[in-house]
Amino acid sequence: MKAVYAGWSCPEGPAELVDYLIDPFHAEEVDYEDFTNAVDVSTAPLEETQFEILATDWHVTWLKTKLPSGREAWVMQHSGIEYLFLEGGTFDRTEEVRRAQIWESMQ
Q1: How many other CB atoms sit within 10 Å of the CB of residue 45?
Q2: How far is it, in rounded angstroms, from Cα 20 to Cα 25?
Q3: Burial (CB count within 10 angstroms: exposed 0-12, middle 13-18, buried 19+), residue 31
Q4: Please, which residues have CB within 8 angstroms of residue 55's CB and are 6 or more apart in sequence?
Q5: Least confident piece of the model among 43-47, 61-65, 85-89, 95-99
Q6: pTM for this structure?
Q7: Of 69, 76, 75, 63, nearest to 91 (Cα)?
Q8: Beta pairing partners, 74
Q9: What mean pLDDT is predicted for residues 32-39?
Q10: Cβ neighbours of residue 83 under 8 Å, at least 6 residues apart?
Q11: How many CB atoms lie within 10 A of CB 17?
Q12: Is the CB of residue 65 less than 8 Å from the CB of residue 26?
């Protein structure tokens, strides 16, 4: 089963969760092919024209990462916005934010 958009992007914050997801300790950059093998990108809230150029858009970074709970996650960074993708598409946002805030306080 491919990961789908989890209904969360960085403008929803908080910053601690964004920082956790993109931190190089947790995230590794992958290419478009690897990302789309694991993620159904069509579930992202983008316009049709954006989907058409994703593979070659230099504004996009693809990340394999994990939530603070350790669950595998995928992030598409597109024009300064992070979009979260998860298998099953749902997560306990309150708990993940709490864990990210603990992590941030220990940095």
Answers
A1: 10
A2: 9
A3: exposed
A4: 32
A5: 43-47
A6: 0.92
A7: 69
A8: 64, 85
A9: 95
A10: 5, 8, 9, 44, 45, 75, 76, 77
A11: 25
A12: yes
As beta bridge partners, residue 82 has: 77
Tokens linked to 103 = 């992590």
Residues linked to residue 64 through DSSP beta bridges, in sequence order: 28, 74
CA distance 68 to 55: 28
Q: Which residue has the tokens 């230099």?
A: 58
The amino acid sitting at 69 is S
Q: Over 18-79, what HEC string results?
A: HHHHHCCCCCEEECHHHHHHHECHHHCCCCHHHHHHHHHCCCEEEEEEECCCCCEEEEEEEC
